[in-house]
Design brief:
This protein is of the alpha/beta class. The chain has 2 domains: 3-58, Orthogonal Bundle (Arc Repressor Mutant, subunit A); 68-252, Rossmann fold (3-Layer(aba) Sandwich). Helix content is 37%, strand content 25%. It has 10 helices and 17 strands. The strands form 5 sheets. A 7-stranded parallel beta sheet has the order 7-6-5-10-13-16-17, sandwiched between helices. It has a 3-stranded antiparallel beta sheet with strand order 1-3-2. The radius of gyration is 20 Å and the shape is elongated.
Length: 253
């Protein structure tokens, strides 16, 4: 096989797998690992992939996401675990922000035994889930209602958040990257997320493992603005290593 042909096939293989090791590639293409390392180095120089300690990965770009109803059914058990773990970080008497989303919605089920808690949210689903809890005060930000997801957003939402000061903000995202941090494809949703982060002493990103390593067009928060990431233990081992090398406290649950 010609060198250029092999490198093109290596690239296609990495694209199909998202994350691969040098050993895996060497076995698949029946060449020495040193040969694969040279191929990966060249492909990285051409900005076609990213080298990792033991292999390579492709940055997955996000331009949209499924409907709210579809997202509620995807990775349900993983999101449930994330929600339960996130709840252990919340103490009685605290003020918290729960960002709109299918993962943050699972936090509500796990905090109903908390006492004297105040929850600020831009999500009607979250507010409704907590409506009967006498020990939890719910503050809804207001804003323009997105009928497909029951999310509130816009100028009123942003103004409300600018007046808040909370212990912890739990933020959802369609894309989280080890170098670029938190990004989003919809510029209309960025200001509210930025406002939540600014209002909080501590920022915790909650998202399932399928969103890790992905990037999108608009920056929401750099890594230095995020204190903790909670994600699924199903994340690829190579990407786990990369995430653990960041300055963020990463929890795999």
């Amino acid at each position: 096989m010609l060198i250029l042909d092999r490198q093109n096939k290596v690239l296609q293989y990495v694209k199909s797998k998202k994350v691969v090791t040098v050993t895996e590639l060497a076995k698949y293409f029946k060449v020495h690992e040193a040969t694969i390392r040279r191929d990966l180095t060249l492909l990285e120089k051409e900005k076609k992939l990213i080298r990792t300690h033991g292999g390579a990965m492709i940055e997955d770009e996000v331009h949209s996401e499924p409907s709210f109803q579809e997202r509620t059914e995807v990775e349900f058990e993983i999101k449930q675990r994330i929600g339960q773990f996130a709840a252990t970080l919340i103490n009685d008497g605290e003020n918290i922000i729960l960002d709109s989303g299918t993962t943050t919605l699972h936090i509500t089920d796990a905090i109903k035994d908390k006492k004297n808690l105040t929850v600020i949210t831009n999500d009607i689903n979250i507010a409704a889930s907590l409506r009967s809890e006498k020990e939890i005060t719910v503050i809804v930000t207001g804003g323009v209602l997105f009928p497909d997801s029951y999310m509130l957003n816009g100028m009123i939402t942003n103004e409300s958040l600018n007046k808040m000061h909370v212990h912890t903000a739990f933020i959802g995202t369609p894309a989280f990257h080890h170098r670029l941090g938190l990004t989003h494809f919809d510029e209309q949703l960025v200001p509210a997320k930025k406002g939540m982060i600014k209002a909080a002493r501590k920022t915790v990103v909650v998202t399932d493992h399928t969103k890790i390593g992905r990037i999108s067009l608009h920056n929401v928060a750099e890594l230095k603005e995020i204190d903790m990431l909670i994600t699924g233990n199903e994340l690829d081992e190579e990407i786990k290593k990369i995430m653990l090398e960041t300055n963020i406290d990463v929890k795999f649950v």
